[in-house]
C-alpha cells in the first residue's frame, strides 16, 4: 500500500484505489488501521483532496472522538456540504450537542441532511422540544423537509395535538402518505398516543402494508388497553396472508397475559413453536410471564428449566415470577447463579431482584447497592427507586434519602418512593415537605403520590392538611380519588373522632366502600363505645360477605364487656358458617442468609429447641441482674 501511494498521482485511478482502502478500513472497523491510512494520505498530500478528506472524516466520525473529527475537519481546505454534514454526524454521535450546534451555525448553506442531523441529534438525546424548534426554523429557512425528517419528528411526539400537526405538515409538503415507512411511523405514533381512530385511518388508506404495519397497529391496540382488539387484528393479519415475526408473537402473548386468557396464549405459543421462534428470548420471556400471571407457576418453571441458553431478559422475568409468588430466596439464588454464569445483570435485573425479596437482610442490601455503583446503575432512576424502597423496608430511611438527594434526574417514581418510605418510617412531616418540593419542581402528582401524602396525614394526624389535599385531588391535580384515597381520609377522620364526617364521605363515594374503609369505621365505633354503630357496621360487613374477621371479633369483645353471652355464641356460629378464620400476625428476622418467620400463637418452630434454650439463658442472665421480663419456666425445651 505504501509503495503504491508513493508512485500514485492524483488522478481517477489513484483516487479510486485510495477510496477502496478506506472502504477496507470500514469493513475492518479498526481505528488503528484508519489512522494508518490517514497518515499515508496526509504524507502524500492526498488529504487536501475534498473527496478523500471527506472519506477519512467519515472514518473518524465512526470510530474516533469528537476532537479527532474536528481536527481532521479543519485540515480539509475546500469543504463542501458533505464535509459539514459528516462532521455534524460525528459530533452528534458523541452526544456533543453544543459543539454540533456551533458547527451547524457556521454552515454557509445547510441542506436538508444538515437540518435532519440536528433534529435527529436533539431527538436521540431526549430534547424533543428543541427538535420541534429546529424543524420550525428549517421551514422558515425555506428548506423542504424530507420523509426522514418527519420520521424523526414522529418518534419524538408526546401529545396527540403535536402529532396531528406534523401529520398535517406531511400532507402540505406533498409527501405520499402511501409510503410504507411514513405510514408505519404514523401508525406507531398514533398507537403510542392512544389515538386509535387515526391509527386505523392511516392503516386503511395505505396502498402497501408490511409486517411492521401490522405490528404497529397491534401494539397500538394493546398499549391503549384494548387487548381483545389487538387479538382481532392478529387474526386479520393471519387471514390476510402475513406471517408473524418474533415481535408480533410477543405482543399477542402479552395481550393474552393482560386479558388472563391462558387458552389463547397457549395457542399463540404453539404457533411460535411451529414457526421456529422457541429460541427467541423475547417470546420466551412473554410466555413465562403469561404462565406466571395465569397462576401456572409450574409451567413457567418447567419452560425455564428446559432452556439450553439463558439471557438477562429470560432471567429478569423468572426472578419477577418467583418474587410474585413469595419465593424471594429462590429469586436470590437464581440471581447468584446468573452471576456465576457470567451473565451481566441489567438495571432491570437489579430492580427485579430487589423487589422480589420482601425484607432483605442489611448485608444483602449493602451488597446490591455496591453492585449497582460498580455497574454504573446507581444513577439510574429505576435502580435508585428500588434501592430506596429496599432501605425504607429495612428501616434505613436515611440511606434512602441520601440516594434521593444524589439523583441527577428524578422521575415521579423516585419522588413517590421516597415519600412512601418516609411515611412508612414515621416521618410524616418530612413527607409533606417533599410533596411541596415536588410541586415546586412542576411535576404533576399521580394517584400514588397523593396516596402517600394522605397516608402521611393519617399517620401524623394532620386532619386539616389531609382534607385540603383530598378536596383538591380532582380540581387541582386532575386525579379522581380511588379507594386507597378514601380509605386514608376516612381513617384519618375516624382517628380524630370525627365519625359523622367519615360516614358522610362514605355516602358520597362513587363506588361501594371496600373492606378497609368499613374496618376503619368499625374500629372507631368500638373505641368510642358506640355499640349501636358497631352492630350496624358489623352487620353491613357481614351482609357484604367481606373476608374480614374484624366485625366478628369486635362484636364479641363488645358483647363480652356487657355480659351478652348468647350474642357471643351467635356471632361465633355465624363466623364458623361463613368460614372466617382469625388472621394470624407474624414477625420475621434475617440471620445470615435465611429469613425466619414467627407466627402468633405458634407452638413449635423450626429450630425451636435452640431458640428457647438461648431464651432461657438470656432469662437467667436478666434474673442475675435483678430484672425478669419473661417467664420461660412455663416453657419446656421443645418450645411448647
TrEMBL record:
Annotated GO biological process: RNA modification
Keywords recorded for this protein, A-Z: Repeat
Family assignment from sequence similarity: Belongs to the PPR family. PCMP-H subfamily.
InterPro entries tied to this protein: E_motif, PPR_At4g14850-like_plant, PPR_rpt, TPR-like_helical_dom_sf
Source domain of life: Eukaryota
Residue windows of the PPR repeats: 111-145, 210-244, 311-345, 411-445
Gene3D superfamilies, per the entry: Tetratricopeptide repeat domain
UniProt protein name: Pentacotripeptide-repeat region of PRORP domain-containing protein
GO MF assignments: RNA binding
Pfam families the record matches: E_motif, PPR, PPR_2
